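== Sequence, structure tokens ==
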Amino acid sequence: MDIQLIPVEQFQTFLVVTSRVAGFVSAIPVLTSSQSPARVKAGLVFAISLTLFPVMGKFIGQTNFAPLPFVMLLSGELLVGLLLALMARLIFTTVEFGATVIGYQMGFAAANVFDPQSERQVALISQFQNVFAILIFLAINGHHLFLQLAVQSYQYLPPGQFNFSGGAIPYLMELAGHMFVLGVQFSAPVLVVLLLSGLILGVLSRVFPQLNVFLLSFPINIGAAFIVIALTLNISATIIRQEFDTLPDRILTILHLLAF
């Protein structure tokens, strides 16, 4: 029985597809954790690339497969995938940022837990809000969204035809600034209540000097913050959902900006 070997050009084209897919897969929150086995991640990247290769191969066209240009092409494709993944990761970072501010203001500055996903100490409220955002992401099939964007990215930006000197980086910086504003919106209701709580306790300390305001502020601030978080949880879910809904348009926009 004759064994048909895969042409080298097709294998190299498959590697080009795999490079960008690897960047997209790295954006899926469930798979970014170090607790996810590396073999599972590699197998998922291989399976998705193998599925997309027959369709995406026509978008690659003629490519210079000389060693140095080919390595540069793979590096560029991986960078494009990671850049698009960063746009999705900004949303989760924003949620963590707003929750961290809340945790510090309500008295949880010293109460941190170990996050197995990022392998670092994070605030309790930040961990809660991060898991909350991940559940919303999975509930709206956000992981399916990344697979659709992986296919569309080749239509808008074929491999080797990207330009980082255009408007892509300024647009990404604009999104980063928007995320800081969004983080303030997440923490604003709780911060307002904690500010009023501090003001009231300050007045009480002047009226009743014998009152131990320092010890009294901890249970009051923590209780008030949890009540506000519970009352505004539906609003937070709506804001996070809106950010995920606008994510495809933002990714397609940056793909246009990356194109020559």
Summary: DSSP finds nine helices and two strands in the chain.
